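F.,

This is the one I mentioned.
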């Protein structure tokens, strides 16, 4: 068989470590005896030459070495060749996410499902994988749609939402795309579409005394003095700007394009302010994820507690656990530790919160567009008392229905990369919501 390689990466991750992982992947592939064609070095951006180099292969194999968005993978699928994706894990050492490859696989799965494209997938380290099932097609996705649960229905929580979408979602983040009229028909939510400059201008215009309450909140962070004063001030101004926009627009939640412009154009992270807003019961979704903001607001009402919009960034079937993470913006009531101030792992700007999620029962929920149709996706589990897996806000979870089954169903459903997390077991309430909204329900790991 002729296998055409596309090794994908981004320069904001640990390039040296990515090259080490790629070398291991290439060694395993070379040992299969198949003919390997295409680039053997990391592709940091879309390349027409690379697509041409693999266009006549029997199988196009995406090597998801670090996180990337899904745009190039969707383009590769248009070659009309069988498609496979191999993503690599990284050890949970308490440091930065050096690769974040699982999240790239997750974005690709959602985008390919939305386009009706089948693919094979594998998540495993070069040192202990068997590529047979990936290359022979037996690890292909098996699309699942769920069904409307036969339980007593309840009305959609948080009806009549007003949400400000600030900036557009990043290119290649199909997980964050939305249709304004379709969302209103489904949930009744009203969406105002604001520009990022509206938030930046409001932040810059705040008088210093208006920043003081947010500085007082941040003062509890014991290492705050180590943050750059200018970045810290600019970051906390974003909290004030969001509060002002909330009051002026009577918004219940926000969906914010958080990168790269908050760093490259404004000069301060919005992650710490998002943590503050979430703790105050004003959910903020990253990457302008409007459905994510609606999801958070719904779960917040059901749980009567702050919520955290998290990425699933690792699944360890042998340990039967997963890791949920985001840069540093979970509500502080979700930890038993002392939160610490930190900077963004890739962009190196303040202010972010760093802590490990506390042990306890948790529920994951997404009002989803997986596969191109609305549905509700849930999972339950136990957040474990484990050491910090990765910097930012993260936690290690043991799902009720097992890591292997959850991993399978994340891929098979085409789930978005953001799920809302709340403490407590709210599965019954969410089943009733699905029945009340007449939406199919997928419970990850249960088997469909």
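My design for it:
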């Amino acid at each position: 068989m002729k296998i055409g390689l596309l090794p994908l990466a981004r320069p904001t991750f640990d390039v040296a470590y990515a090259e080490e992982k790629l070398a291991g992947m290439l060694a395993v592939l070379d040992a299969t005896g198949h003919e390997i064609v295409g680039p053997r070095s990391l592709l940091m951006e879309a390349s027409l030459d690379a697509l041409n180099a693999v266009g006549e292969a029997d199988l196009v194999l995406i090597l998801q070495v670090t996180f990337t968005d899904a745009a190039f993978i969707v383009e590769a699928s248009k070659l009309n060749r069988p498609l496979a994706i191999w993503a690599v894990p990284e050890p949970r050492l308490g440091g930065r996410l050096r690769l974040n490859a699982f999240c790239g696989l997750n974005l690709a799965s959602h985008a390919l499902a939305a386009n009706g494209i089948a693919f094979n997938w594998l998540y495993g380290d070069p040192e202990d994988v068997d590529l047979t099932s990936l290359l022979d097609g037996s690890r292909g996705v098996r699309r699942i749609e769920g069904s409307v649960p036969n339980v007593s229905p309840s009305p959609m929580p948080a009806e009549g939402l007003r949400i400000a979408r600030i900036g557009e979602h990043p290119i290649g983040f199909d997980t964050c795309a939305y249709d304004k009229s379709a969302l209103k028909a489904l949930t009744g939510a009203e969406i105002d579409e604001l520009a990022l400059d509206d938030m930046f201008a409001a932040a810059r215009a705040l008088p210093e005394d208006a920043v003081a309450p947010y500085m007082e909140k941040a003062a509890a962070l014991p290492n705050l003095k180590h943050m750059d004063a200018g970045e810290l001030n600019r970051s906390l101004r974003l909290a004030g700007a969001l509060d002002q926009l909330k009051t002026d627009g009577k918004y219940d939640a926000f969906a914010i394009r958080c990168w790269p412009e908050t760093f490259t154009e404004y000069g301060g992270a919005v992650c710490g302010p998002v943590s503050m807003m979430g703790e105050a019961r004003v959910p903020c979704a990253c990457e302008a994820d409007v459905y994510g903001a609606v999801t958070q607001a719904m779960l917040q009402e059901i749980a009567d507690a702050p919520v955290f919009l998290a990425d699933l960034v690792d699944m360890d079937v042998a340990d039967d656990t997963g890791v949920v993470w985001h840069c540093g913006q979970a509500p502080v009531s979700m930890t038993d530790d002392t939160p610490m101030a930190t900077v963004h792992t890739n962009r190196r700007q303040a202010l972010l919160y760093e802590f490990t999620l506390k042990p306890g029962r948790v529920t994951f929920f997404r009002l989803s567009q997986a596969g191109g149709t609305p549905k509700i996706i849930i999972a339950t589990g136990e957040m474990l008392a484990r050491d910090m897996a990765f910097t930012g806000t993260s936690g290690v979870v043991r799902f009720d229905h097992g890591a292997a089954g959850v991993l399978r169903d994340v891929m098979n459903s085409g789930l978005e990369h953001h799920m809302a997390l709340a403490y407590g077991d709210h599965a019954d309430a969410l089943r009733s919501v699905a029945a009340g909204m007449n939406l199919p329900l997928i419970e990850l790991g249960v088997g469909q």
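The radius of gyration is 21 Å.

Talk soon.
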